[in-house]
Amino acid sequence: MITAGYALIWLESLVLLLCVSAAVAFAFHKIQRTWLKAALLVLYSLLFLTITGCAVLYFYAMDYVGFVPPWTVHYTAALGSIAAALSILFFTKINFQSLTKPALAGAGALILLSLTIIGQTNLLHWENDKIAKRYVQQAMAHYPGPTPNEKNSYLVYKSLFGVFTEEEYMFLRKTREPDFNPLSEDVERLLSKHSSVLETMREASLRSGFYHPFNSAAMGPLKIRDIFSLSYFCGMAALYHAVKGDLEEAAQILYDMRMFANRINYYPGEQSFYVEMGLLRAIQDYEEHFLYLAQDLSRKLIPFLPLSSSALMQQKEMEMWIAVVAKRLQEGFDPWCYFRDSSGALDFIDIFPATPPIKQIIANFQLKQLGAYLEATKKEIGLPCTGIIERRLAFQNNDKNLTIYLLAENYCHEVMGYNCKLILCNGVGALAKAAWNYHVDKGQYPKQPETLVPAYLDEIPINPYTGKPLTIEFIEGGLTILTEKPEIYVGYYPNDFHMGAAYERYRLTEKN
To answer: Which keywords does UniProt give here (predicted)?
Structure first.
């Protein structure tokens, strides 16, 4: 069918050319003056060359940007050929009392159009399959497949979903409140009832690699409540052990919780964006509370929490999300086409129109654009991130074409914007770790940033939004690392990070 599709497309072009030529020849036959015929022939030749040149440039440009020529080109050519053929027949051999020949011509044209649709559709499926398979193979090369003798970490996590009841979930939600008592009888009862959960989380953290199935069937339906119940339970257990004085165990539990959050964000399921934001903020609450408790219970060096949300966007991660898009397009063209950035957040590229030929053509275009997006990301990932909003607005105002505009917006916002988010997270994490190590050695938090350099930190990390070092607000018995995020991005970036007495002051302010 693919070969037939190609053949029919070129056949239509040839038929159109012949029909137009026949119409011109018919017109020439009616013209008696030689000079007029010559003038018309020259004009027709110039017109033909111009149209041919424009067509060649058009097809070359579309191929250059990875866009299959739209179906309107072929259908317009077919309709033009039908109109030309009918006009020639009408003026020459058609008997006005007989509709046999026009009916046959119309039927033949409809058959030609139908075969063209089938051929073009199969051609696009074939192209998309090739691209999707290449992306999937490229991404899966970095991840271990499931083996009969060893569980993958996602299967270990899966066994913990659905463990907690609705009543327990409602109780676990309260563990982030300022007046929560981690030593209550309800806490001890829950820890005793679900004692195996922490062991299972530890087992999953020790697994090397994380198998990404690319479809929801491998993991089953994920409920947001199951994910947050598990995270809240781990946070509650960490606070319980911290208050009891077992900081090593508390730190390990929070580490397992962070590992779970990072891994679950790779899952291309429903409402992933809300999962990512909710988990990161919950983890930050528990980490701040943990450090606040730890400062009065022990001066020994504890395993510091992995505060940064993740490393900078890596090539294999980009390939992974592109493969997710490719796989979804390959398996049925979801109404939403999306991919995920390195924080796990969901990003929509385009809404597919309902008409199947258009939908598949746009899908093909997006897959090729995603390949270019990956290459551009490799080059742009190290650029400074100041002036994001200005660059994004300039990008939007430059091109209002729907598909190009949306891809351009994602490119400018995600490559630069979310890269800034990760730079900021990593910088806050490094600065918090240095401040904690200073606190362990000196018995108090630093009073000025210069005391951390160079003994605890090579230099104060740069805030990518201001281009200046991260700002620290010092108070008695603690400090706050200010993220100074733009107001327009409040929902996308981490909150200020509180340590020591700053945590208590922040909680009291928030409660009041």
So the answer is: Membrane, Transmembrane, Transmembrane helix
Residue 329 included in any domain: no
Q: Can you give the pLDDT at residue 134?
A: 72
Residues 283, 254: contact at Cβ < 8 Å?
Answer: yes
CA 479 to chain centre: 35
Domain hosting residue 6, numbered range: 2-140
pTM score above 0.70: no
The residue ranges of the chain whose pLDDT is under 50 are: 1-2, 65-68, 94, 96, 144-149, 208-219, 266-273, 306-314, 333-358, 379-419, 488-490
Q: How many Å apart are CA 218 and CA 210, to the nearest integer?
A: 13
- C-alpha span between 76 and 73 (Å, rounded): 5
Segment (H or E) for 281: helix 272-297
Is residue 338 classed as helix, strand or coil in its secondary structure?
strand
pLDDT tens readout for residues 113-172: 666 666 666 666 676 677 767 766 665 555 544 443 455 676 788 788 889 999 999 999
- Contacts of residue 14, Cβ cutoff 8 Å, sequence gap at least 6: none
For residues 234 and 257, is the Cβ–Cβ distance under 8 A? yes
H/E segment holding residue 346? strand 346-351
Mean pLDDT score of the chain, rounded to an integer?
A: 66
Dihedral of alpha carbons 25, 28, 34, 38, sign: negative
Percentages helix, strand, coil for the chain (3-state, rounded to 5) are 65, 5, 30
The answer to whether position 428 is within a domain reads yes
Query: If we measure between CA atoms, which residue out of 334, 327, 283 comes closest to residue 309?
Result: 283
What is the domain count for the chain?
A: 3
Strand boundaries in 422-509, DSSP class E = 471-475, 478-482, 497-500
In the prediction, which pLDDT does 179 show? 78
**pLDDT for 293:** 82
Q: What is the pLDDT of residues 367-390, one digit of tens each?
A: 666 666 556 555 444 443 334 344
Q: What are phi and psi of 61, to 5 degrees?
A: -65, -45
Query: Residue 184: which residues within 8 A CB-CB, separation 6 or more?
Result: none
- pLDDT at position 417 is 42
Of the residues 84, 110, 140, the one at which a domain ends: 140
Query: What are the φ/ψ torsions at residue 156 (nearest 5 degrees)?
Result: -65, -45
Residue 317 lies in a domain: no
Residue 269 near residue 219, CB atoms below 8 Å: yes
Contacts of 495 (CB under 8 A, 6+ apart): 281, 284, 483
Asked if the bond preceding 454 is cis, omega within 30° of 0, the reply is: yes
